[in-house]
Specification:
single chain; about 140 residues; alpha/beta; Rossmann fold; five-stranded parallel β-sheet; 5 helices
Length: about 140
């Protein structure tokens, strides 16, 4: 049996959070939820998600900085931003995909989650640092 894809769901509204958690859990995802930025950081430190689904605006947290910190734990993790208005989005938020909260159906959210979480399991490619690559190039020249 294949392991379930792990989704970290972040939203300050607990009603929407429970609905999205139920929606994704019934589709076969392992969902863990957070209602604040601090809780999301603690979860991401021990729970390696395949996808981060974050709702903007998030009460009491700068979502751009939060996503950057969560990506520091695992740079290969994808993120989906659910926003009320994409035109009012702050510049600091970098997400792989963005959807409007009220303008998309739940089926669209599930399909986007399936697309972003696909193919993430298994051995990961090692990323070598630029300094290491420059040192190798200098040794080859010398």
């Amino acid at each position: 049996m294949r392991p379930k894809k792990r989704i970290l769901l972040i939203d300050s509204n607990e009603n929407r959070l429970s609905i999205r958690r139920y929606l994704l859990a019934t589709q076969g995802f392992a969902v863990i939820s957070a209602t604040s930025g601090d809780e999301a950081r603690e979860i991401c430190a021990v729970f390696d998600p395949d996808l981060i689904v974050a709702c903007w605006p998030l009460a009491g947290a700068d979502l751009g900085k939060l996503l950057d910190e969560l990506h520091a734990y695992n740079p290969a993790v994808h993120s989906l931003l659910l926003a009320e208005q994409l035109t009012a989005e702050p510049d600091g938020i970098v997400a792989d995909a963005k959807l409007l909260k009220g303008a998309c159906a739940p089926v669209q959210i599930v399909e986007r989650v399936k697309m972003l979480s696909a193919g993430r399991r298994g051995p990961k490619k090692t990323v070598q640092s630029v300094d290491y690559m420059m040192a190798l190039a200098q040794r080859r020249i010398a």
